[in-house]
Amino acid sequence: MVSLVAAFAFLNSGVDVSRVMVIENTSSDASVEIATKYLQLRKVKNLLKIQCQDSALDAGKETLPYATFRTAIEAPLRAYLKTHPKVDFIVLTKGIPIRLTGAPSGVSGSQPSLDSFIAALDYAERKDTLKLEVKDSGFTGTAWVNRFWNSTERFSHAKFGGYLVSRLDAYTVDEANLLVKYALIAEKNGPSGSILLDTAPSHGLGDLKMVPRSIANANGKGSAILGELNYNEFDADMIVAGKLLEKKKVPVTVDLNDKFVGRKGDLMGYCSWGSNDPHFEVEGYKFLRFSPGAIAETAVSTSGRTFLPTTGGQSLIADLVSGRVTGVKGYCDEPLLQAIASPTILFDRYTSGWTLAESFFAASRLVGWEDIVVGDPLCSPYRK
Question: How far apart (Å, rounded) are the C-alpha atoms in residues 28 and 169?
Answer without folding.
Answer: 13
